[in-house]
Amino acid sequence: MSEREVLAALRENARYSTADVARMTGLSESEVEAAIEDLEAEGVIRGYRPVVDWDRLADERVRAEVELNVVLDRETGYADIAERLASFPQVTALRLVSGDYDFDMEVEGDSLGEVSRFISEKVAPVPEITQTVTHYVMTSYKEHGLELGDGDDDDRLSYSP
Amino acid sequence: MSFEPAGRVREVPPSGIRRFFEIAEERDDVISLGVGEPDFATPWAAREAAIDSLERGRTSYTANRGMADLRAAISGYVADRFDLSYDASEEILVTAGASEAVDLAFRAFVDPGDRVAVAQPSYISYEPGITFAGGDVLPVATREADEFRLTREALAEAGAEEAEALVYCYPNNPTGAVMSREQLEPIADFAREHDLLVFADEIYAELTYDGEHASIATLPGMRERTVVFNGFSKAHAMTGLRLGYALAPAEAIGTMNRIHQYTMLSAPTTAQYAAIEAIESCAGDVREMVEQYDRRRRFVLARFEEIGMPCFEARGAFYVFPQVPEGWDADTFAEELLTEHGVAVVPGSVFGSGGDGHLRVSYATGMEELREALARIERFVDGR
Ligand SMILES: Cc1ncc(COP(=O)(O)O)c(C=O)c1O
């Protein structure tokens, strides 16, 4: 149970210090450390990355959502195709989904040219892939559960009963 | 002819927080832990239902008692969550905030000269409400040694057997205290033995950590003498929408409605639409908010312990009630903390007897602010 509480706190903010997570969960710091180590060892926690609003950085960052259709045969299953695609560093997320297409792939690069070259030269030629539909991201409004707007000021009265 | 206030208005002093409010308004670096409302916005689904009702032009009065659909939703909700059984057509009155329900109950059942026992420290509106109704307030001080729970001994000591009614709120504003079913039993016995009505303000019921909320109205022989107040302000983060309700036997609701139909007509219609949606689809939002409050609660309690300000373990609402350090009085502490370090808290004395020497600290504020505010409090205490 303590693992769940630690996870809930870190999902709120992965940069909470061990001491703060301990305060929030009522565990000792060493228990928090142990819970985090267990979560990491079990592969539940896979990493810690900041949620970036690329629009606020001067550097160009091009992202695309790519729908992929594939055909399977006796030797090749979804996992085989996925493994191959996921190995590319340009692929930032890859999910098998229900519906009209099979894979939902997120791709990132420094320029439009780089991303489209990657898709046409590396992804489309994969023999099992029958179709790709690429959607370039124009604006992002929410990432990892965080809204990217300017946020609302706290307009509550400083004292209320 | 003059606008000289009527006697019962003159009897009620202006709010003790006013002075602090003015100081806080002059600074722009204040972190407020003085707030008695959620820092979350109303769940989006509920806001959307309100918007949708406006788009469809649903802007007329509703039935005095509230929309039938809403009363049915409330009836199901309180049964499911708190084991309370109230008939949607006769035993529920939808009001403009729990505030209106509290006021109605006092005006409906308190005669001039009636004594009303008020468990304190408590939410600040009961005393004025009783006074406006012509009743006399009988303060019943709870003690930190009892974790600010109301006890039979405290009632007896205050002479509450002479009272006509008892009002309290658990989970408590300002202490964060909660009462279990077992702890409510002697209170129920006392009310039955001395024939007291009970006004149970349960607006923080959902914000109960470590365990389930217990309502006194579920104890034997209590339903017929209890009015329960609840609402959407706290659990559903709907303070500004102004929506609450009273639960009581049909006769009592009828009496309260006799005032409500003339003085309010009906609770805000837009808010009623939001409230239906809040019940029907926002349980997950409530759970998420409660989990966050609980993390903050434990964080704040841990920090006060580290700072060396004793604080009993509050298990409800979104307040903790630490003692000020030795040698301080709470008013001075709160004022200097505000002027020197820009942290707003409310001195416990504002909440009646038993509150002296304490501060009400609200954790209805984001973790970043809480962390910074507690660091400032620590510097303030260490610097002395
Ligand atoms: C104990 C208690 N009861 C009632 C209220 C009023 O709630 P409402 O917004 O529903 O009028 C408050 C608000 O602070 C409260 O703390």
Structural account:
The complex is a heterodimer of chains A (161) and B (384). Chain A has 161 residues and is an alpha+beta fold. Chain A has helices spanning 2-12, 18-25, 29-41, 78-86, 112-123, and strands at residues 62-70, 91-96, 103-109, 129-136, 142-143, 146-147. Chain A folds into 2 domains: 3-41; 61-139, Lrp/AsnC effector binding domain/regulation of amino acid metabolism (RAM) domain (Alpha-Beta Plaits). Chain A is built from 5 helices and 6 strands. In chain A, the strands form 2 sheets. Chain A has a 4-stranded antiparallel beta sheet with strand order 2-3-1-4. In chain A, strands 5-6 form a two-stranded antiparallel ribbon. The radius of gyration of chain A is 21 Å and the shape is extended. Chain B is of the alpha/beta class and 384 residues long. Chain B folds into 2 domains: 7-42 and 284-382, Aspartate Aminotransferase, domain 1 (Alpha-Beta Complex); 44-281, 3-Layer(aba) Sandwich (Aspartate Aminotransferase, domain 2), CATH 3.40.640.10. Helices cover 41% and strands 12% of the residues of chain B. In chain B, the strands form 3 sheets. In chain B, strands 2-8-7-6-5-3-4 form a 7-stranded mixed beta sheet, with helices on both faces. In chain B, strands 9-12-11 form a 3-stranded antiparallel beta sheet, covered by helices on one side. The model of chain B has no long low-confidence stretch (mean pLDDT 96). The chains are: A alpha+beta (161), B alpha/beta (384). Chains A and B meet through α1 and α2 of A and α2 and α11 of B. Pyridoxal-5'-phosphate is lined by residues 36, 97-99, 123, 169, 173, 201, 203, 231, 233, 239, 244 of chain B. Chain A: InterPro entries: AsnC-type_HTH_dom, Dimeric_a/b-barrel, Tscrpt_reg_AsnC-like, Tscrpt_reg_AsnC/Lrp_C, WH-like_DNA-bd_sf, WH_DNA-bd_sf. Chain A: Residues 1-79 form the HTH asnC-type domain.
In CATH terms, what is the fold-level topology of the largest domain in chain B?
A: Aspartate Aminotransferase, domain 2
Overall radius of gyration of chain B: 21 Å
Let me know the CATH homologous superfamily of the largest domain in chain A.
Lrp/AsnC effector binding domain/regulation of amino acid metabolism (RAM) domain
Order of helices and strands of chain B: HHEHHEHEHEHEHEEEHHHEHEEEH
Oligomer: heterodimer
